[in-house]
Specification:
The protein has helices spanning 45-52, 57-61, 67-70, 97-100, 104-117, 123-147, 182-186, 189-198, 203-220, and strands spanning 151-153, 159-160, 176-178. It is mostly helical. It folds into two domains: 25-85, no CATH class; 102-220, no CATH class. α6 packs antiparallel against α8 and α6 (123-147) packs parallel to α9 (203-220). Bound molecules: zinc ion.
């Protein structure tokens, strides 16, 4: 009950579609990552000793029986073992704390706390990686789209590529709203600055956060100073 007419016309629409059926599966023709499956029923002592010596994993992997080393022999189809029995092959957590923890800053704290208590994890390196691969990219991306964003009229829904010279909707005269908000750009800024203070972050990454902070301040201005009364100091 299949027709090419059902496939989406968009790019990539036929990507996962079963357009070719193979009767015979040659393991060599299967995607390479499926060859990286261990096939042993236990790991040799050498693997654990190598772990103690911080050996190069490439040198140790030769000691481990995996599917890749069996390709081309009858063993590629049979006797593929495992190290631990289970009663249910799909056992495991159904929901991770990534789903149960709601706010982004709580997720961040939980991840960093885990890094702190696991001795094998260098928590400053972890913090730096979160900054480099996640937060900094997010802030830069949002800043970029902020400057290219469209404006929308709250009343009639008219969209504008840029703010009209009149400063308001040219159709109905109502005020215009941004579609990307200051908050979505700033949401990772505070935690990024905090991580730079609490962890041993490299000078380069530290300065990238600083420069982004300056950039954001020059775009949105400083937050208004709060008037303090005497009770704030008591
Ligand atoms: Zn309007």
């Amino acid at each position: 009950n299949f027709s090419k007419a059902f496939l989406p016309a968009t790019r990539g629409g036929s990507m996962d579609a079963p357009l070719v059926l193979t009767k015979r599966i040659d393991p060599k023709e299967v995607d390479g990552e499926s060859h990286n499956v261990d096939a042993c029923d236990h790991y040799p002592l050498r693997v654990y000793l190598g772990g103690l010596e911080y050996a190069n994993p490439k040198d140790i992997s030769k000691e481990i029986d995996n599917v890749d080393s069996r390709l081309g022999s009858p063993a590629q189809y049979e006797g593929i073992m495992f190290t631990h029995d289970t009663t249910d092959i799909s056992a495991g957590p159904h929901v991770s704390s990534y789903n149960t923890i709601k706010s982004m800053s709580d997720k961040l704290d939980a991840q960093l706390e885990l890094g702190r208590i696991i001795r094998a994890v260098d928590e400053s390196d972890l913090a730096e990686r979160i900054l480099k691969t996640h937060f900094l990219r997010d802030i830069m991306g949002n800043l970029n789209s902020f400057s290219k964003q469209k404006l929308r009229c709250t009343k009639c829904g008219a969209k504008y590529r840029r703010m009209p010279l009149a400063g308001k909707c040219t159709v109905c005269g109502n005020s215009l709203n941004a579609t990307i908000y200051e908050g979505s750009i700033k949401k990772y800024l505070e935690p990024s600055i905090r991580m730079c203070e609490e962890y041993d972050i490299s000078e380069y990454t530290r300065q990238r956060v600083e420069v982004l902070n300056l950039f954001i301040k020059s775009t949105f201005g400083e937050p208004p100073q709060e008037q303090l009364d005497l009770s704030s100091f008591m």
